[in-house]
């Protein structure tokens, strides 16, 4: 069964990714959209979770992936709702922390405003190094408002236990995102 799990997981994760992309992609072709309406109306992420459960593989991995995909596409309100279905919220918080870092890295390094560079100079060195290691190209939607990112980092703080190794990083991220919001 362990040999089968990897392909099953990959398939189910791809199903979830494709479903979220189909629902939230910015460049929707109206003719293709009309032809695919039936398939888009199906709850593919829910079906993937059900299939994982029936195949006796971790459905929580699928749920966490779904939440991450929603946030990556900028569907933060849906992501917030989907968080309630996740069991291992600590692992989810770590994953969302990376996504928050990717959003902030994009905002700081790709716009390169004078104010943004000044803010970067004031950030703790560990946070700067961590942000430079982020790959914003993994984000499906880079146009998410900084206010939504601030809300996300606060959600991460709610989910992370204070003794978690990434808790101090999340605290620094809160300061950085709030400073970005004032620029």
Question: How would you explain this protein's 3D organization?
Answer:
The protein is mainly alpha-helical and 183 residues long. The chain has two domains: 1-87, no CATH class; 89-183, no CATH class. Helices cover 74% and strands 0% of the residues. The protein has helices at 2-24, 30-35, 37-41, 44-54, 59-72, 76-83, 89-109, 114-122, 125-133, 146-159, 167-181. It starts with a helix and ends with a helix. The mean pLDDT is 86. This is Rab3GAP regulatory subunit C-terminal domain-containing protein. Pfam families: RAB3GAP2_C. Keywords: Signal. Residues 1-18 form the signal peptide.
Q: Give the amount of beta strand, in percent.
A: under 5%
Q: Write the H/E string, N to C.
A: HHHHHHHHHHH
CA(first)-CA(last) distance: 53 Å
Q: Averaged pLDDT, please?
A: 86
Alpha carbon gyration radius = 18 Å
Uncertain spans, ≥5 residues at pLDDT below 50? Answer: none
Q: How many discrete structural domains? A: 2
Q: Decide which structural class fits the backbone.
A: mainly alpha
General shape: globular
Number of strands: 0
Give the proportion of residues in helices: over 70%
Q: Helix count?
A: 11
Please summarize the sheet with the most strands. none
Domain Rab3GAP regulatory subunit C-terminal: 10-161
InterPro entries: RAB3GAP2_C
Signal peptide: 1-18
Keywords: Signal
């Amino acid at each position: 069964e362990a040999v089968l799990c990897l392909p099953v997981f990959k398939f189910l994760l791809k199903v979830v990714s494709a479903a979220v992309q189909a629902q939230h992609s910015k460049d929707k072709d109206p003719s293709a959209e009309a032809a695919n309406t039936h398939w888009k109306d199906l709850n593919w992420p829910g079906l993937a979770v059900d299939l994982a459960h029936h195949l006796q593989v971790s459905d929580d991995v699928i749920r966490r992936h779904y939440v991450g995909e929603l946030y990556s596409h900028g569907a933060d309100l849906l992501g917030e709702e989907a968080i309630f279905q996740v069991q291992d919220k600590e692992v989810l918080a770590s994953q969302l922390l990376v996504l928050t870092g990717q959003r902030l890295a994009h905002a700081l390094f790709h716009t390169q405003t004078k104010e943004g560079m000044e803010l970067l100079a004031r950030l703790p060195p560990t946070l700067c190094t961590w942000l430079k290691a982020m790959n914003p190209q993994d984000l499906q939607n880079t146009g998410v408002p900084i206010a939504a990112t601030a809300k996300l980092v606060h959600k991460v703080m709610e989910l992370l236990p204070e003794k978690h190794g990434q808790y101090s990083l999340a605290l620094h991220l809160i300061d950085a995102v709030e400073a970005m919001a004032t620029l």
